[in-house]
Amino acid sequence: MATDHADHGSRGSTGVIVAAVSTSIAFVALSLRLMTRAFIIRNVGPEDYVVLVAFALSVALTALICVEVQHGQGRHYSTVSPEELEQLNKAFWASVPVYQASLTLTKISILLQYRRVFVGTGIQRFILGSIGVIIIYGLWSVLSTAFMCSPVSYFWDRSISGHCLSRLGVWFSNSALNIITDIVICVMPFPVLNKLHLPRKQKYALMAVFGLGLFVCLTSILRLKSLYDISVSDDITWDNTPAAYWSSLEVNFAVIAACLPTLRKTISRFFPRFFSSYSNSDSNHRYLPSRKTKTKSRADTNGFSKFAITSHAAQTDWVQGLTSQNVTAKGLSSEMDDLKKKPSLSTCNSDDGITVVGAEPEDGRIRVMTTIVTHELTPSPSELDVSVGPSSTASSPKERHLV
């Protein structure tokens, strides 16, 4: 049998190549994310630091896989010396909690990003509850794999007395919880995104970006077979290679899935039409569901328009367009110049309308919301009560929320 095993050679190089390539792709995605958040949006949040630590653990996992291959992983058990086997098992023991910790931190990073962009008491509570569940589960998964054997050294040195928990039970229970939490995190944004008042193409594009985490679920499911093989294997050094590279693929796909939704600003610079309906909002803008309004008579209708003034030319175009609708808007250009100098939100009232200008210090743009009132359309005074919250979004129930 030893001769047959030797004829098969080694497949450890496959694990190293898969781990190295997937880690490199995750590094590119993370670099683009940090560049976007630090230099384009200029607003690095806690979720960015969390996913950075998760990627560092992924790099550590790749390094441990290389150590395992160096000491015999990918070769048949009969061709591995006892000294090599001990070093291999030490690296293998360390790789499992590192894998679990990386996945846990990536999920927490995604949930923190959800908490930043999605508005609503219900979903905010659900996100916080999910973070709590992920933290508790993550601690269990790390500790249960790190202290699977008592004493710990019994994992790689069976010459001493000790005992271990069932590998099949611990690994499969953790994998099942991983898959369940992955599905919940992927599906969580869909109800909110479905309510957005957006063109269908852009709405589906957003859903596709947020749904990329389903590939992580698929990877977790495909990894189950390799986990079963290694749990019941008599040739653990040979059968552990698929489990190793599937684990590396899973953690790196998770990092990539966490980074892609934050790259909208970078993508829009190279593919401006892909996110054309979002060109006037940054990636930190909170996603607000559109609100349906009841059909009203012409006499009770008021109109809201929202603009992002990014240059003098855009300001001029805005004034010219508004002038064609309302002749009283001719003097707004000078009023806007005065209002832009004020650090806080400003409101300009006139007999024919209200203009609200708010500065956004993140990118220096000006958000203008104007209620246009003509002599033909005469709303009641209560309908002209326009308030703007901290996120430069009007809170009037009649506003059409755009993202």
TrEMBL record:
Residues 32-269 form the Rhodopsin domain. InterPro entries: Rhodopsin_dom_fungi, SAT4-like. Keywords: Membrane, Transmembrane, Transmembrane helix. Residues 377-403 are annotated as: Disordered. It comes from the Eukaryota. It is found in: Membrane. The chain crosses the membrane at residues 16-36, 48-71, 91-114, 126-148, 168-192, 204-224, 244-263. It is a multi-pass membrane protein. Belongs to the SAT4 family. This is Rhodopsin domain-containing protein. It comes from Aureobasidium pullulans EXF-150.
